[in-house]
Amino acid sequence: MQTMFNAPGAGPKPGADLIKDTTDQAFMADVMEVSRTVPVIVDFWAPWCGPCKQLGPMLEKTVNAAKGAVKMVKINIDENPQIAGQLRIQSIPAVYAFFQGRPVDGFVGAQQESQIKQFVDRLIKLGGAGADDGGLQEALDAAAQALEAGDAATASDIYGQILEVEPTNVAAYAGLIRCLIAAEDHTRARQMLDGAAPEMAKAPELAAVRSALDLAEQSAAAGPVGDLMDKLARDPNDHQTRFDLAMALYASNKREEAVDELLEIVRRDREWNEQQARKQLVKFFEAFGPTDKLTLMARRKLSSILFS
């Protein structure tokens, strides 16, 4: 593979609407889609958070000074808790930066204005280089497509080549762990996850992979799908069997069917086993990622059940 980064692009393009408020429902459009062309800073805040009130204006000032090289979105976690929950945000203020549809940087807690400027400057450089990244995003996309198609060997090779050039590329590192999970090499996947460099360890991609590995290890103990379906047919209210069936389906890469079985448990008895089905769904969402189509669809179904 050739070098991943060539000469930077021509520079940022000024634009309007540099700073806006968003919601869980609009997150895809306001952040993920916009970040395809320009870095987007997401400020997670709440009205009761004192440090948020200090950090927010400094962020806005720095973003405005960048004149379109970056954009900023604010999300009130009291009114919109879903995305914050998927990113496992434990305290605020929390700031994430997205570029080309993935998290690339971030911090938690109050910052000095000089630190904020350095943070934004890094994003400006990243956005400038993003127009001509030497094929990095294409390589990541190709690896992800190969893994989704069941070709873990090809995906692993691509991710490995990326990491040779850019050892701290979180997307490639997480992708390589997913390849090990797909190959059912859970021991090496766990070793790689636990051995991640400090600058990568708290990245959202690795949080998602950790959930995926936990689920893979858990589902490895599930019984055969056919036997579980037969048992469930004899007693549709056997929630433990339905739960085991969901995990067996997940192990067979039948994600949507697995989600449907857990949703059915919630529909029949949402309090079963201390809401285990709902909690497992949340873990599924973490493993799939907040922008996955199945995550978005299943969250809507879950909300419909819980609030009906």
TrEMBL record:
The UniProt record lists the keyword Disulfide bond: yes
Record InterPro entries: Thioredoxin (IPR005746), Thioredoxin-like_sf (IPR036249), Thioredoxin_CS (IPR017937), Thioredoxin_domain (IPR013766), TPR-like_helical_dom_sf (IPR011990)
Top-level taxonomic group: Bacteria
Protein keywords: Disulfide bond, Electron transport, Redox-active center, Transport
Biological process terms in GO annotation: cell redox homeostasis; response to stress
Domain Thioredoxin: 7-125
GO molecular function: protein-disulfide reductase activity
Alphabetical list of SUPFAM superfamilies matching this protein: Thioredoxin-like, TPR-like
Database matches in Pfam families: Thioredoxin, TPR_19, TPR_20
Segments forming a coiled coil: none
A cellular-component GO term for this protein: cytosol
Family according to the record: Belongs to the thioredoxin family.
Protein name: Thioredoxin
Organism expressing this protein natively: Skermanella stibiiresistens SB22
